[in-house]
Amino acid sequence: CQVKGFYPPRISMKWKKNNEDLTDGVNITEYCTKLDYSYQRFTYLKFTP
């Protein structure tokens, strides 16, 4: 999942399953500065289909 174009660099990103927060297999990147001085952030969820 990617979120981009926000400022200031404070945003919460969560993965949910059946309305419950998931924590296992979740990775969230640091904030990345874009050329327009806004920010972006990525989060990844490892899963087996």
UniProtKB/TrEMBL annotation:
Domain of life the protein comes from: Eukaryota
Domain annotation Ig-like: ranges: 1-19
InterPro entries: Ig-like_dom (IPR007110), Ig-like_dom_sf (IPR036179), Ig-like_fold (IPR013783), Ig_C1-set (IPR003597), MHC/Immunoglobulin (IPR050160)
Matches recorded under Pfam families: C1-set
Protein known as: MHC class II antigen: proximal-membrane region (Alpha 2 domain)
Organism: Scyliorhinus canicula
